[in-house]
């Protein structure tokens, strides 16, 4: 299952502003999922709240007035900066059979997608975090989660010729459950490795 990491609207607005220091306005963009956050713009002239898609305000004159910037205007003024933005991080979840480092059949199929996603990055930054369900004691779960993370790291390194030393590998054991359960509860969604590619 792929879970894209969402950027907040403030980051998008800052990107637009930083990319075009010669422009006299800042505009708020939508997130990939269609939502829009909000950002408070403060200049020597005062403060303005932006909270709708493509809402913009001047930064070199009286504040408070906003307008909706057309896609054409945004592309003309900020297109180069937006195209230069790095690809957004993406997270993949791989699930395991009980008690070992054997991927479920569905998760085996996800490995190719992970390798493809890594291949689209010129300098990939990859982290692999292993997790377990709550069956067993803390020490055994920490070790098992690390074993799973190292197993996935090996698959990534073999498939993309990435030096495993450049992949951040962690074990969270039975901490940070995806599905909260009592102790000694089997839950396949907690027996996972999270692979995040930046």
Properties at a glance:
60s Ribosomal Protein L30, Chain: A; 10 strands; alpha+beta; 198 residues; elongated; disordered N terminus; five-stranded mixed sheet
Number of strands: 10
Class by helix and strand content?
alpha+beta
Strand content: 15-25%
Topology as a string of helices (H) and strands (E): EHEEEEEHEHEHEE
Q: Unreliable segments (pLDDT under 50, ≥5 consecutive)?
A: 1-21
CATH architecture of the largest domain: 2-Layer Sandwich
CATH class of the largest domain: Alpha Beta
- Report the end-to-end length measured between terminal Cα atoms: 17 Å
CATH topology of the largest domain: 60s Ribosomal Protein L30, Chain: A
Give the proportion of residues in helices.
Answer: 25-40%
Evaluate the radius of gyration.
22 Å
Task: State the CATH superfamily name of the largest domain.
Answer: OmpA-like domain
Strand line-up across the major sheet? 1-7-10-8-9
Overall average pLDDT: 87
Give the number of helices.
4
Q: Number of domains in the coordinates?
A: 2
Major sheet attributes: 5 strands, mixed
